[in-house]
Specification:
Layout (H helix, E strand, L loop, with lengths): L9 E4 L5 H7 L1 E4 L13 E4 L3 H12 L4 E5 L15 E3 L9 H19 L4 E3 L2 E5 L4 H13 L4 E4 H7 L10 E5 L3 E3 L1 H14 L3 E4 L3 E7 L2 E6 L3 E4 L1 E4 L5 H4 L8 E10 L14 E6 L2 E6 L7 E5 L18 H14 L7 E11 L6 E5 L2 E8 L9 H14 L18
Parallel strand pairs: 3-4, 3-15, 4-11, 7-17, 15-22
Antiparallel strand pairs: 1-2, 1-11, 5-10, 6-10, 7-9, 8-9, 12-13, 13-14, 16-19, 16-20, 17-18, 18-19, 21-22
Length: 415
């Protein structure tokens, strides 16, 4: 964030008569020292103020818990997993039908964030899940719609191409169209969550690196490169840095380099949000996903497990080269020929994958004061709003009404 706090500076909310006034005014900097001055041990420390961490800090603080949130860069930065101007949100979910109730609540909470912040962060375009009959994306999406009674249409390739002129699907492909799909603006989401957390009393410190943590007598101490923070509970939302902060999970987590690119289009109207649904699509060489033009010129596309490059997040190669472009252009040429122009923008981010590509949301077996919320395998951002609520439930009540059966650590007992 340009002009953001320097290392060790603390962010506090400005005093204002309403949340929206505070958001429009921004926040003022309190240039404290590296050791946080906390007269009492706070209820919870949150490590990582990305998508999950910012939402967790907001939900915890709004319930009246005392919260300290720590970010090694700054909220909304471009060095992790929660940036790139847009993230897909889709109600039909091929990965597993159990995600659908979480998504339904997530949509509600994104709308609440918009109301509380006064900013639009969610754009509904409809969503297409595309593949040949029998493919995981097509069949899994259809199953989720049927299990949960979601409004949807089954479309042929000709149907898609006729209704949405930016698409040029090959014969034989099928699509599930679900009208609630769309995209979120991740940087805006994170900054809104962060500001609202501060409004409710949370302290946020930026550009402080966490070196580790320890626990004693029911208190967790978070060791920073400058100082330390003590709290009664710790929530770790560190994404690709989770293996370093929770070494016991390192064998389960694989940080991976991911690339997206924006291609210049010949027909702007065909790629505007009103005429171009977001998509997830299976082709013979893998899964692709994409977005309409929004905010910047160009059609945005990515490929899951882009080049399957396992990385260290601190030494990620952020240069997008010709091979990266070629991976994406192959799909653009075949399916989106009106977007087969020059690359006008590109970006790298990080997927942190689990063996089964489901999330981890659980307490550490040998450290029950520590809740780990991370490793979302490249499809987690859309859930940030509801995961924030889940974290607040678990920290304040020890339980949640949401089904977390997919996300427990015990499923990896064989590892």
């Amino acid at each position: 964030m340009p002009g953001g706090p320097r290392r060790g500076e603390h962010w506090r909310p400005t005093r204002s008569r309403s949340i929206n006034n505070c958001l429009s005014a921004g926040v003022e900097l309190n240039l404290g020292g590296p050791e946080m001055d906390l007269s009492e041990i706070p209820d919870v420390a949150v490590v990582g103020v990305g998508g999950m961490g910012s939402a967790a800090a907001y939900q915890l603080a709004r319930r009246g818990l005392s919260v300290v949130a720590i970010e090694r860069h700054e909220p909304g930065h471009d060095r992790g997993s929660s940036h790139g101007l847009s993230r897909i949100i889709r109600l039909a979910y091929f990965e597993h039908p159990s995600y659908v109730p979480l998504l339904q609540r997530s949509f509600e909470l994104w709308r609440e964030l918009e109301a509380d912040s006064g900013e639009q962060v969610l754009h509904v375009t409809g969503g297409l899940d595309i593949g040949l009959p029998g493919s995981r994306v097509y069949e899994g999406s259809l199953e989720s719609c049927r299990v949960h009674g979601l409004t949807h249409e089954v479309l042929s390739a000709d149907d898609v191409n006729h209704r949405f002129p930016g698409y040029h699907l090959p014969p034989g492909y099928m699509a599930v169209f679900q009208p609630d799909g769309g995209f979120l603006e991740p940087e805006k989401c994170i900054r809104a969550f962060t500001r609202l957390a501060q409004v409710h009393g949370a302290q946020v410190t930026a550009r402080q690196e966490v070196r580790g943590w320890s626990r004693e007598a029911g208190v967790v101490t978070v060791h920073l490169d400058q100082g330390k923070v003590r709290a009664r509970q710790l929530v770790v939302c560190a994404g690709a840095w989770m293996p370093a902060l929770v070494p016991s999970l390192a064998p389960l987590l694989s940080p991976e380099r991911q690339v997206v690119a924006w291609f210049a289009v010949r027909d702007d109207a065909a790629f505007e949000p009103a005429r171009f649904p977001v998509f997830v699509m299976t082709l013979p060489d893998g899964h692709y996903y994409g977005f309409p033009q929004h905010g910047v010129p160009g059609f945005k596309i990515g490929k899951y497990h882009h080049r399957a490059e396992r990385i260290d997040p601190d030494s990620l190669n952020r240069v997008v080269d010709a091979e990266d472009e070629g991976v994406l252009r192959e799909c653009v040429q075949a399916v989106f020929p009106a977007a087969n122009g020059p690359v006008v923008r590109s970006s790298t981010c990080i997927f942190t994958n689990t063996p089964d590509e489901h999330f981890i949301i659980d307490r550490l077996p040998d450290a029950p004061e520590v809740l780990v919320v991370s490793a979302c395998s490249g499809h987690g951002f859309k859930f940030c709003s509801v995961v924030g609520e889940i974290v607040a439930d678990l920290v304040s009540d020890g339980q949640t009404r949401h089904d977390l059966s997919l996300f427990g650590l015990d499923r990896f007992s064989a590892h």
